[in-house]
Amino acid sequence: MKILVIEDDRIVRTLVKHVLEKEGHEVAIAERGETGEKTALEESFDIIVLDLGLPDKNGLEVCKVLRDNDIKTPILILSAYQNTDTKITGLNTGADDYLTKPFDNKELLARIDAITRRVKKGDAPTNVYECGELRIDLVNREFYVRDVKVLLTNNEFNLMAYFMKNPNRILEKDELTNNVWDINFDTNTNFLNVYISYLRKKIEEITPVNYIQTVRKKGFMLKCGSDS
């Protein structure tokens, strides 16, 4: 794979480059946000590893610019910021995953493999799934409520897609996090609940129907029957 690493810390940058090249990947390096942003806009990559604390601009700004320019390359944030709010902000800005420093080399590789597997899975389906007033197009990555197009972040879309492919079934938190993000998150945190609330809010702006229901002590269910 061709990977772009945007990282200003020389030690971390050298380590990541060494680990990735040892696995046979082609690695391009950018030490500043502006440089990384320009490189990502001009060249094609399989994945981008992005630091947040860059010297010239925050990595979140870089992420937003790339997504605003319709760059769909998967982005793995690699940052020393460990608080949940920063992680959620990063993912909500358009990143596909978030790994905190210090990190284990094996976990870095596992995260990259998980993201690329997810992207490949998303390329294959040609189906459009429907649930009552909801419709999702996996190929064009579009989501509609009552034929109104609703803009979702990458992570919101992936979560909604999993719900749409598994309607009227109780989905436990572990199943959702493992299949949507391919990573085991601490289910005691409100990480998943935050994304559920994002989806509910966007759906409820158009319809009063309670589609994503909480099943107490079990998980969540996308209810597609008439009694939703």
Automatic annotation (TrEMBL):
The keyword Ribonucleoprotein does not apply. This is Response regulator transcription factor. Residues 126-224 form the OmpR/PhoB-type domain. One of its GO terms (molecular function) is phosphorelay response regulator activity. The keyword Transcription regulation applies. InterPro entries: CheY-like_superfamily (IPR011006), OmpR/PhoB-type_DNA-bd (IPR001867), Sig_transdc_resp-reg_receiver (IPR001789), WalR-like (IPR039420), WH-like_DNA-bd_sf (IPR036388). It comes from Natronogracilivirga saccharolytica. Pfam families: Response_reg (PF00072), Trans_reg_C (PF00486). One of its GO terms (biological process) is regulation of DNA-templated transcription.
